[in-house]
Structure formats: C-alpha cells, structure tokens
Design brief:
The chain is an alpha/beta fold and 600 residues long. It contains 19 helices and 11 strands. The protein has 2 domains: 226 residues, Rossmann fold, CATH 3.40.50.450; 320 residues, no CATH class. Strands 8-7-6-5-1-2-3-4-9 form a 9-stranded mixed beta sheet, with helices on both faces. It has a two-stranded antiparallel ribbon with strand order 10-11. The relative contact order is 0.10.
Amino acid sequence: MISDESLRPRLALRFGVTGHRPPRLSLDHHEIARQACTELFRDAEIALTGIHKRFPEVFSEEKPTLRLVTALASGADTVAAEAAYAEGIALSACLPFPSETYSKDFSEEEWRNAEALAKAADGTLAIDDFAPSDEAAYEAIGRLVLAQSDILIAIWDGEPARGRGGTTEVVAEAVSRHIPVIHINPDGRHEPILLWSGLHEELPDRPSIDGVLRIPAKGALPSLVDALCAPPEGDEFTSLQDFMRGVALAGKSSIEWPFLLLATGAKKWSQTSFASPGPAQSRQYFEPLVEPFAELGRFGRRLAGPLADRFARADAAASASALQFRSSFVTNFALAALAVMLALTGLLVPSAKVGLILAELFVILSIILNTRRANLRNYHQLWIDRRHLAERLRLLAISSTMGRLSLRDVEDGTTHPGWETWYARATARELELPPGTLDQDYLAKVRNTMLALIEDQIGYHHRNKHIMEHANHRLHRMGDFLFIGTILFCLFFLTAKVFPALYVEFNGIGLTQIVTVATALFPALAASLYGIRMQGDFAATAERSAAIENRLSKLRASLAADQLSYSRLVDRFRRLSEIMLSDIHQWQQQYETRPLSLPG
C-alpha cells in the first residue's frame, strides 16, 4: 500500500559550486568568498522555510533541506563546503578521480581539509574513468556538478578560461543550460550577482555569459528560490493535488476497449484484461530497475521507496485513465451506430415506432452523458500527464545512479513548468549521490540496467505495433465489407426493378424497406468503425512504435558493443532519454488534438 506521506516530496534546494584554485584564488580572498556563501545559504533557508509554510499539503513534514554539491578541489570548492558545513547544510562530494589519485592534486594540508569534508558529506562519489591529471576528468566532474544543481555558485574573477573544464567554461555551460549562476567576485569589489536566462522576458534559446541578464543576487534570491521550488499555480496546482490524492485510480475496470481488441483479433482471450494494473503491480514492474542499487545506503532506499511509490502511482493512474478514455470513445461510436439502427428499424416495424424513438432518445442521452462524464473526469489529460510523469521518474531511476539529476535539462529551464515536470524535479532533489567509486563493476551494473530497460521498451513497442496494426487492419476490412454490402444491396434492388420476379417480401416488409434500411445502416456502421480508427489513431501509433523499436534496437546494439566508460554511458543514456521523451512528446501532441467529443 502506497502511503500519502511517501508521495509528498521533502522540500529541497541544491547548490553546486565552481571556482578558482590557488593561486588564482588567493588565501586573502577566502574569507570574502566564505562569508558570501554563508549569507546565500542563510537567505535560501529562509526562503525555503517560507515556501514550506505556504504549501504544507504538498511537502512532507520534514524540515526543508539545502545541499551543496562540490568537487572539493582546493580553493573555491572547499571554501564553499566549509561555509556549508558550518551552517549545518548537507554536503555531497563528487570527485574526478578515486581518492588515492585525486589526493596528488593537493598539498598534504589541503588534502587533510578536503578529506575531512568528504567524510562529513552524506555521499561521496568518485569517477574512475580517466588517467591521472587528465583534464577531461575535470570537465566531466564540472558537468556532473551542473547535473546535480538548481543554482550554481561561481567564485570567479570574471576573467576568461585558462584550461579545459575551468570555471569560465563551467559557468558558460550553466548559463547555456538555463541554470541560475550566482557570481561571487572573491576580491569583494561588488556584491554577488545573479546571471540567469529566467530574468529575460522571453527565454533565449542558447543564452551566453555576455548576453544573459544580471541583477544583484541578494534581493533576487527569494524570488529565485520560489521560482525553482514552489509548486505551480492555478490549474497546475489542482492537477498536482489530484495526483497526490489518487484521482484517476478509481474506475480501473472497463470492457469496451479490451472487447474491441478481442473482437478484432488484436489480442487473444488469454491476453485480455478488463482492468488496468494497480499501483502494486506497477511497483512490482519497477522494482527490478532499482534492485541492483538497493545496497547503496540512503540513496538506494530512496530509489526503492519514494521513487518507486511515485512511479507506481503515476503508471497505474496513466493506465487507468487510458483505459477509461479509450473505452469512452468506443462506447460513443458504438452507441451512435445503435441510434441509427433504432431509427431505421422504425421503417421495418412501424407499430413499434414510439418505443424505438424513446430508445433512440435514451441512446443519444447516454452518448451525451458518457461524453460529459469523460470530460468532467478529464480522462484524456490525466492519461497524458501521468504517462509523462511516469516516464520521467523511470528515467530518473537510472540517471541518478550516475549522479545525473539534470534538474534543468527538461523544458530548457522553463521557470514555471507543468506540474509533472515540477514533481519529477522535486523528487530528484531529494536524492543523495550514489556513494562509492564508479568503477568498471558499478558501470557494468548500470549498463545492464539500461539494457534491461531498453529491452523492455523494445518488447512493449513491438507488441504495441502489432496490436495496433492488427486492430486497424480488421476495422478497416470490416468497414470495407459494410460498404461492399451496401453496393450489393443497391445492385440487387436495381436488378429486381428490371426482373420483378426477384422482388421479395418478408412478413409484409417489402424489398424497398429492407434495402433502405441496409443502405443507410451499413454506411453508418462503417462510419462508426472509421471514427474509432481515427480517434484511436491506430495507424500512426503503430508507425510510431515501429520507429521507436528501430531506434531502441540500434541503441541496444551500440550500448552492448561499447567499451565500458562513464562518459560513454552518460552519452548513451542521454540518447535513451531523447528517444523515450521524444516518444512521449509526440504521443502528447498526437492525443492532445483528439479530446473526446460527440460523434458527428
């Protein structure tokens, strides 16, 4: 049973830090930078406390938490970490090399300080992917810090870069990825400055250091924290609350859509279920994805706990809403055909005309009520939003094992995202770094998990492609037969006019009435089948699944053949995310244009 408390994220905010090392950051400037960081942390805590008080129904009762993610390089990284530690702020340490290699970048005193901070951190991750002193390692760790950060603190003199992976390069990438940057000039010549594309009236596509807007950070920080962490407003806030209350989990059973697939032969009886999977089933499906990382302390427990619960709620709600929406439009078109049949039956049985008209009115009223019910319960939008959230959480389960939270990657830094994007980000903010060294054994575990997910998705799209192709083909053929039947009735009637001996009559019902009913009813039935095909978009769905299956198959082959490395694994995962999220976005665009409406 998923508890409501498990669905409420802990309010959190993550700072990353980049900056100069000695001698570019002199000892004389350490205290200025440390004091500026301390003031930022204190102001951010005040802002978080205010948000927590405003939205007690959204966030857990746990105290809001700040976190600093740092590579612990001597200079700016350790200065910011010391300020955070002094303020009781959580630390996460990510190192470009294992400790025994990284320590060679430090003097003895510097390393003792860095090592003490690493022990104080609640998670320390080290990359074991580069030769000692390889500049690519510093570039990789800079990107990992960005992937972990809501806000980047840059203790920076504002001068150009002097090497690969340096401060200026990290700041430039942060700005281009819409990550807010708080620039602390260590010589104290000016107060900290906020650089952020969110300050623009319209977000630039690729903002640059030179072009991005700047304002004093002190006064802007409360609004910035609010923009990043506060839940969305208006209808989006209502949708968030509906999700957390379990709206869309009720009414999980329906017969119309499963029966359609059964009747068309797209599914066999043994494969047919008239109920969507519940949260418990969705959780069981998700658990193998995170089970290999269960031993990783609090990080592993969060994957197997809140993250799994939230995926299960989103996945089950998406499945339930999809079943109800699809069944609703199948019902509408079937009832529309029935209404035509009742109207035409009056030609064959005039004595029952009053009863047939009453029945037809009842059927039409049922169509209106069914449409109104589906739209009031918003099955269409519930399906789209919850499926989007489920996929975001499923991808997070893997990306987080490599330290990639990518809090600003999706939707290009939109300051007011949809509720599902906000909720996925809030879930990501709670996660610590996976502790330990990302060595070959660990990377192999991550790769195997990725391959398992890819294999699962290939299987899903392969099955979905055949189901949709088969259903579309059968519905199309049935429509063709109905039109052929209409033609045959017309030809028979014309032939009977030429050869009167062929004119038949059954129980007082003449050929004229029979042909009139058949030639009106058959096209109406064909039109209903066509309406189901168009509303369900069987052909386009099959084509999209075929394309996704092909792209995933190529990715699987490439991933399996790769030499195992952290950087390559990150690149492959980025490709997997693009494929899966582009599928979701295409699917959203496809179905957002097809809300349930009266057949006509």
